[in-house]
Here is the input.
Amino acid sequence: MRNRIVLSLIVSAAFTAVARATDIAPTVKASIHDVGPPADGVGDSFNAAPFTGLIQKTSPQSEDRAIQEFNVAAFTGATLQSATLSGKVSVNNAFDVGPRSFDFLLYAGNGVADLSDFQIPAVVVGSGSYYPPMPPNFTYSFDVRTAVQSLLASGATWIGLKVVCTSDPNYPNILDDVTSKLTLIQAISVGTFFCPGYGPTTPCPCGNDSPNGSLTGCLNSLGHGAALVATGTASIGSDTVVLRGSGMPNSSALYFQGTMQQNNGVGALFGDGLRCASGTINRLGTTFNTMGASEYPTGTQMSVHLKGGIVAPGTRMYQVWYRNPAAFCTPSTFNLSNGWQIIWTL
Here is the structure.
């Protein structure tokens, strides 16, 4: 265990994000061709202009997929209130091949069009269809907050979009690069961060410290730490607080509340991470992560102050305890996020 300088002051950071919409246009645009027969699901070449948005499929001869990438470096470490992907797909030649359908997928990009983007692992965030020549195009708009938040939590600074034909034959179509945009709104956070998975807190159990400044807990088997933040209004009379966790495996996650900071805010070893919240513990609720993220409360779940039994102003600590069954660090099969402190008012 390497030496650390343990500060007497609690490591914390206040968040004062402004909730305003930012429209991000794609700066990487390409269409990738898989030539056959038979097409083998691997990108072989780029389509030249004006077909940089070409989408088509004629099995077993060939397939073309359009990609775009959006620079989200300005949102590194941010918690999103919303994320919307929108744009338009238009017919290029109105051959009657029946209704044409498509899947829209997001992936971690790198700011460069690569042939491997054709088959890069990606998450489906929406679908769309039309039957040209009337109408000659269709517009799409998808709520992609969970997917984008998960990619940001994993360290992505570029968000890639891939559009894939799901009907066959399907030809030819163009993904418009003028109307395409990713609209992000950063959430207004309430409370303060503490107990990171890096110095000067307690060292993580097996050298799995997160990078300095990452504002997360100890590294998990995915190669990054889990982040917890809170948004909303921490008022007993008008509670709108939402605890938002990200950067976790797709597994169960327990959101819990404590009345104290463990070990004066530097945490204590627990599983593959650090226990940050202590004192009187109140289990708020267990949820299941989707795309590495989850939140409490959702749906009909009780508000945070009601479930936490908060009846008078005061300070509470929060953390996410999540399952991480992969063989990674200690024999334990769980890890934790950073800690989050909220001061409740009337």
